[in-house]
Amino acid sequence: MPSYRSADPTRTYYVYNAAWSFLAALSFTLNLVYYVRDAGLDPLQMVLVGTTLEVACFLFEIPTGIVADLYSRRLSIVIGFLLIGAGFLLQGLVPAFLAILAAQVLWGVGFTFTSGADQAWITDEIGAEQAGRVFIRAQQFELAAKIAGIVTAGGLGLISLPLPMVISGAGMMLLGLLLALFMREQNFHRTPRAERETFRHLAETFKHGLGVARRRPVVRTLVVVSLIGGLSSEAFDRLWSVKMLTFTFPAVFGTSDPAFWFTVLALIGTLLSLGTSLTLDRLSPERLSAAHPTGILATFAVLQIVGVVGFALSGSLWPALAALWLTTVAGTVAYPVQSAWLNRHIDSRSRATVLSMVSQANAIGQVAGGPPLGAVGRSSLRAALLASGLILVPIPALYLRTRVPDEAVTRRS
Q: What is the pTM of this model?
């Protein structure tokens, strides 16, 4: 093994996630403001941008996941970051609707190369039992890096709205090249070249992953939860900013510019998420890493419902902000707990494929739910946001009814 690929997997995973989080914050903090101000997108076009992204994710999630299972997790991740970077660059350099749609396809396909492959890689390298704690710790690094990215995006955005996206795109491509050099992959055994009968192996791997999703209650539950979450999230993710722009922001440091305020909103939401994650990790680590964390996941789901519904019904700035931050914190802190729970119920052979199936279920939900709720939002923004919250109501019950004996937990392959 060459020395430049001798980096510790856990440290590599932490650095990789922190870098991704910083660069993503650069691109996403002000992108909705950029769509409206520089590109001149109307509400329908904004929804179509999101739908295009999710269609790309839906079409490529499973094929790219299977590639990661058969060939190389590292190769899949490197390709993903190169495509994501190209998409961010195109979006920032060409402020036109069709160019932004093309950018969504590029970075959406790139994301599917990384989705599932990164978690599958670290789980293979360090083992499923250690991965749960690493996921939670990695999220804390992500949130800290996101704070830095948000602040940087705000400063750059005051100079030029597309500038943070352009720098993010170049940084993503550089990250992909660095991972190609330093990312170690010792515990993955790809199919030998002589045995690569592509269509047969693709079919067998997909069939195995589908069987896991059908047989194992935890996997089945999380696929359904992901689908429901997608039905709700596409409209909320696009329309919350539209509602926020209807409020009058107070002047701070002599400015009430939405670019400044969107940066502040993202920064406070991230700080709250980081503080909540650190507090729970210190006070109740056993709940976060429990074999079956159904209670805490159900609690987070209830808080998310309260946040979305509260935001929809809020008629003034500060209650809307409180509800928005509650939604952000609940979803952010729940994610690594859910990821660790899912990974304990998947074997190495189909880990990336099954994780991709869960992501694909979310993409299906977003494609199916986004345009109808977006159409509702054109006549009643409150009704569309309220519907987004009510769609989430079954999720707490789904968590609580999932009961699996400890012996059913998948052993490491």
A: 0.71
